Amino acid sequence: MNNKGERRLPKPLDQPRLEELALAYVARFATSAAKLEGYLKRKLRERGWDGEGPAPVAATVARYVDLGYVDDTAFAKARTGSLLRRGYGQRRIGQALHAAGIAEEVREDVRAGAADQRQAALALARKRRLGPYGAAPADRAAREKQIGALLRAGHPLDSARFLVDAATIEAAEEWADFNEDY
Question: With 90 as the cut, is the pLDDT of residue 63 above it?
Fold first, then answer.
């Protein structure tokens, strides 16, 4: 801030500053090519471009992909694993990967199996004290809220119903450990 309380505008970007921003971003965050491109474009909107010709955003992103600094498949695998451990279902994971700019074929390649999806549903039930993990048997309204929570987390309706209606913790865990598709 200067002496009148106004914000000082940052200098417009040139090629070296654009490279510095890109490198700092990929060093700090696990990211996808689309997220890096969006970040660089946002910085260009905020600060402007002071280089010759148009800003080489696409070329910079492509170079970072070629160098291995940005890997959409590795990002998608890591993000999928993280969301599964937090209890999210496949629908929510797909939405998160789509928002990160991950291509459909990569999203399909990293899609969790049925057993992993059941384990994620069980993790959420345990964390949120749903179904048999709750203190008392759920009445109709509480049951609907619990099913809704599982559905919002991206789990299928049949999984949500089974977990909420499971009589015991052992029954829920046995269902989650079942290796066949449900």
Answer: yes
Task: Identify whether the C-beta of residue 15 lies closer than 8 Å to the C-beta of residue 51.
Answer: yes
- DSSP-derived secondary structure letter, 13: B
CA distances from 167 to 49, 138, 172 (A): 63, 11, 8
Instruction: Give the pLDDT confidence score for residue 135 in this predicted structure.
Output: 80
- Tell me: the pLDDT tens digits for 118-173? 999 999 999 999 989 988 777 889 899 999 999 999 999 999 999 999 989 999 99
- Whether the CB-CB separation of 106 and 76 falls below 8 Å is answered with yes
pTM: 0.83
What is the rounded CA–CA span in Å between residue 75 and residue 102?
Answer: 9
Write b or e for each residue in 43-76: b if 16 or more Cβ atoms lie within 10 A of its Cβ, otherwise e: bbeebebeeeeebbbeebbeebeeeebbbbeebb
User: Which residues neighbour 172 within 8 Å (Cβ) at sequence distance 6 or greater?
Assistant: 122, 125, 131, 132, 133, 162, 163, 166
Q: Where are the alpha helices (DSSP H) in 86-156?
A: 90-99, 104-109, 114-128, 140-152
